[in-house]
Write a structure and sequence with these properties.
2 copies of one chain form a homodimer. Chain A is of the alpha/beta class. Helices cover about 50% and strands about 10% of the residues of chain A. Chain A is elongated, with a radius of gyration of 21 Å.
């Protein structure tokens, strides 16, 4: 495990992928639009097949021209594909892979977009057996509070990081192909283990979401909630933005990554205890020290400002 | 106490104020620039005198043309003023008012910009005695993580709310004048008691700051902090933005409003306890319920979207 400056640049896409998208929501729809846009300057016409558990979403994707055909099953959608993007809730990963597995061409690359990775790795191995070698777990750091195919956007992945957590059974060519695909839609790729991924995102994504939800719960449970909220300003707006997430997504993330979230929650409870002690004892110097410590870290942080870590696959 | 649709519109400024600004930082400098800009279309040339505890800030304000003269004492700066803006740390309020009190013209209106109000009211009465009737406590909801005269901006107060917490001894004409001044620099004015102000801002500003500080403390105290922070995304960016505040400001706010902040912290600890219990017991349905409750509130909230409450002065 080391902090490496960059991964070797993957060779650019050399052949037009035959793409199948399973799940026609924000993530899958945006991926289809972005890959189509990336193929255009190369003179390639991308054919995109799709399946969606929600018939309405599939029909809407077709109507918007985001996909070219919609199939009633995941198996039918993937049978001619050489690139499959699984964009379903993480809890649906195993069932979906079981369904499409028998129809999956043996050369196809399969990737997901899930926010947790250890559970997805377990699901892929359980569902695909030896064919798990075709599955490269991926987590593009992109999204919106509100999902759905109508929010799909060809630029969603532009300049975002995509974490790949390779399996030991993935061969180098398949990893190269995976990296080229994410770079084609605009991402910068970082490799790490599924374990490290889940620990890091518990710290920088799942815990902040939990705190934002709990904070809004705390304010809104008070008798004076309406008065308080009417006067909330830009600080409140930014701090609580992520509390607008949906339970369909967040219940699964907290369930799949419960142990790491609880570990991060313990770190936070300890830090909050320092604050309570400082306030309870009227220790203004300690309050100032805690503010200075946080402020120094946050002032120097910038989005994509530090070289991301990379490490060997687990 | 009632939720009133709007306050009566104050008469617009009818005479050019002779302004004295005490404290040449972001808030004072921006106020001077904004009031000068508001006077220009009326053909009024505003003369602005100033004092700053920091000689460098005063000189810089002069150099930037934000103020017209800088005095070595607050008393000298206010002696010809009919409008005095106190833009100093809240803990300096009493000493500053004691210093300028003897030189204050008897018709002048004095206002502050502090983030807490009960302590400012106590300070004003202690320092000014009967002349506290000239002091109208104010809190414009505007600011930046980084202060200083070089950040001063004529638009800082545009479309922001300004809370006025009138004293029983303020007469209606002075309150009208106070409201006209804040409206002239672009604010929408809300009246409430100092007690209600401090309770509401503990809930929607001071507690979120405390949580953002504690969260950054928690992440940065971990051995893996550098790795975590390098991969943090837009959710982290917005959630932790307010953790870049400075201890000079926040130590004073937490000190002045300690009881209300502790009350809000208790509400938060109770809400966080609901989250810990749901995770500890693997109660996914309860996690979903907590997410849905927060998300419903946050999705419907918009900045300045609700009619602010107003109530009688304390």
């Amino acid at each position: 495990m080391s902090i490496a400056p960059t991964l070797p640049q993957a060779a650019p896409l050399s052949t037009p992928p035959r793409l199948a998208v399973i799940g026609c929501g924000l993530m899958g729809g945006s991926f289809a639009m972005a890959l189509r846009a990336a193929c255009k300057p190369r003179g390639w016409t991308l054919h995109i097949s799709a399946h969606s558990r929600s018939r309405a979403s599939g029909e809407r994707a077709l109507e918007l021209g985001i996909v070219d055909e919609v199939h009633p099953s995941a198996a039918q959608a993937v049978r001619d594909a050489d690139l499959v993007l699984l964009a379903v809730p993480v809890t649906a990963t195993e069932a979906t892979l079981r369904e499409l597995g028998p129809a999956l061409p043996s050369q196809a690359l399969v990737m997901d977009v899930g926010s947790t990775k250890r559970d997805v790795v377990v699901a892929a191995r359980a569902a695909l057996g030896a064919a798990a070698a075709q599955f490269v777990p991926a987590h593009p750091i992109a999204g919106r509070e509100r999902g759905g195919i109508d929010q799909a956007d060809a630029t969603l992945y532009q300049a975002r990081r995509c974490i790949i957590t390779p399996l030991a059974e993935n061969d180098p060519q398949r990893l190269q192909r995976a990296q080229s695909v994410w770079e084609a839609v605009g991402c910068r790729v970082v490799h790490m283990s599924a374990e490290q991924h889940d620990r890091t995102f518990a710290a920088v994504s799942h815990l902040p979401h939990l705190l934002a939800f709990a904070y809004v719960n705390a304010v809104s449970q008070q008798p004076d909630a309406a008065r308080h909220l009417a006067l909330a300003g830009p600080g409140f707006r930014d701090f609580s933005r992520i509390a607008a997430g949906t339970s369909a997504i967040w219940r699964d993330i907290f369930s799949a990554n419960r142990d790491e979230v609880l570990e991060q929650l313990s770190h936070f409870e300890a830090a909050l205890g320092q604050w309570r002690a400082a306030l309870d004892t009227k220790n203004d110097a300690e309050v100032a020290r805690l503010v200075d410590a946080a402020s120094a870290v946050r002032t120097h942080w910038t989005l994509n400002g530090a070289t991301p870590p990379t490490d060997d696959p687990a």
